[in-house]
Specification:
191 residues; mainly alpha; 74% helix; 0% strand
């Protein structure tokens, strides 16, 4: 390649792009020095991650170097680079979101919902349920009825009060007394 005159750092963007098209690396270096901070800050505002912003900034400038993508008749180089940078950053953001969704989907497929109890754990659970049932049968009927309505049917104390047609305070007292007695009966068995 014949010697070309040295490029001045204050050359216009259009002149630098023209030199860049003819393969002059010095033109690229000047453009990079001139606009890399602008491109990087544009990308960083979108991605909020320095490493990704550096990668996208590099990608923008590689595209400027390798492809004839800028047309000076359509606007300034700084506007073009910012638009390209923002577009690539949004692409990266969508890719990141898509990758995260894909990862979440695979994790839900691969990870079991809840570990199944071993036969020993299952037998132990059945034994404990038997103890609780026996203890519940030892409670006075009124206390047992309230506790069964709370824990087996999921009713609130005020709903139980309405159903049994007794004051709310009575339901609370029966519940509290039933739990205390149940606790005493199961204390030695479930320790």
């Amino acid at each position: 390649m014949p010697d070309q005159p040295e490029i001045e750092s204050n050359a216009s963007d259009a002149a630098l792009v023209q030199r860049l098209r003819s393969g002059q690396q010095e033109a690229f270096e000047i453009l990079y020095d001139r606009y890399s901070r602008l491109v990087f800050s544009t990308v960083l505002r979108v991605l909020n991650q320095v490493q990704e912003a550096e990668d996208v900034t590099q990608d923008v400038f590689v595209n400027l170097w390798k492809k004839d993508i800028y047309n000076p008749n359509r606007g300034s180089l700084s506007s073009f680079l910012c638009l390209l940078a923002r577009s690539r950053a949004l692409d990266k953001l969508r890719s990141r979101s898509s990758s995260q969704k894909s990862l979440d989907r695979w994790q839900s497929i691969l990870s079991p919902e809840a570990p199944q109890p071993t036969p020993f754990e299952h037998a132990n659970l059945q034994e404990r349920q038997g103890f609780v049932k026996e203890a519940m049968n030892q409670l006075p009927d009124a206390q047992r009825q309230v506790l069964e309505m709370v824990y087996y049917t999921g009713l609130s104390q005020s709903e139980i009060s309405n159903q049994l047609e007794v004051p709310l305070g009575t339901v609370k007292t029966r519940s509290r007394q039933g739990l205390l007695k149940l606790s005493q009966l199961l204390k030695t068995v479930l320790e």
